[in-house]
């Protein structure tokens, strides 16, 4: 059975749906492998402009699969090279929107944090509960979370394993938007449609610079921004976008 389903809710949009409902979408190696394969393929597909990642209406993902880890040793964990699979998601050049309903716990919260935009349902639940099963976050839960919400809120989450709901996640900077539970997926697809209609070269440069700049000095990050900004003036879409504005018509972006 496919553990990650592929849907096409609109032009230029791919929706990836985690599909292990019996295990609350827990992330086993098969799910991670399928995610890595899809993110790599769609990341290179010029017809794909934006990717929506969801677990469905009830739960996003309840973490790494505990059954698949319970008896593992340190070397087993090392030899799984799981970070390579996460890296395939992190390095996807296309914008990724996580549509989060229900549990985004442990590796599920870390998966959501690999996205560029998080749309959360009001009763979504974000949590890093690893400490309760004797481990700690291993796919960005101590690092991406801290960069998103700051040390003190991150520490509280990872040291206590307490969940936060969608509204709290928004307030603390762990979500981009919170909407009614029933509207999460539709809203994420609507945002994806907006992004898919924009010039892909500019979108790709924005994503790359924003992420690379987060961990660079301000001076270096501003230089990266400046260079990418200048580079976009070599694109036809820049000419088209500005000409269309001046001629008061809709731009036709081609990704060149
Ligand atoms: N792993 C494996 N199975 C799971 C998981 C999980 N994380 N979560 C749920 N399931 C399974 C249950 O075992 C159960 O299976 P079964 O029906 O066969 O008994 C089924 O899903 C339904 O679960 P519940 O009955 O518990 O469902 P509830 O709706 O009552 O509760 C919860 C949902 C609250 C999400 C609950 O299932 C839970 O607490 N799950 C575990 C959450 C957790 O601790 N997650 C963190 C795991 S550790 C982690 O994520 C480390 C990430 C490191 C990434 C780097 C990897 C190298």
Automatic annotation (TrEMBL):
<comment type="similarity">
    <text>Belongs to the enoyl-CoA hydratase/isomerase family.</text>
</comment>
<dbReference type="GO" id="GO:0006635">
    <property type="term" value="P:fatty acid beta-oxidation"/>
</dbReference>
<keyword id="KW-0456">Lyase</keyword>
<protein>
    <submittedName>
        <fullName>Enoyl-CoA hydratase</fullName>
    </submittedName>
</protein>
<dbReference type="InterPro" id="IPR018376">
    <property type="entry name" value="Enoyl-CoA_hyd/isom_CS"/>
</dbReference>
<dbReference type="InterPro" id="IPR001753">
    <property type="entry name" value="Enoyl-CoA_hydra/iso"/>
</dbReference>
<dbReference type="InterPro" id="IPR014748">
    <property type="entry name" value="Enoyl-CoA_hydra_C"/>
</dbReference>
<dbReference type="GO" id="GO:0016836">
    <property type="term" value="F:hydro-lyase activity"/>
</dbReference>
<dbReference type="Pfam" id="PF00378">
    <property type="entry name" value="ECH_1"/>
</dbReference>
<dbReference type="InterPro" id="IPR029045">
    <property type="entry name" value="ClpP/crotonase-like_dom_sf"/>
</dbReference>
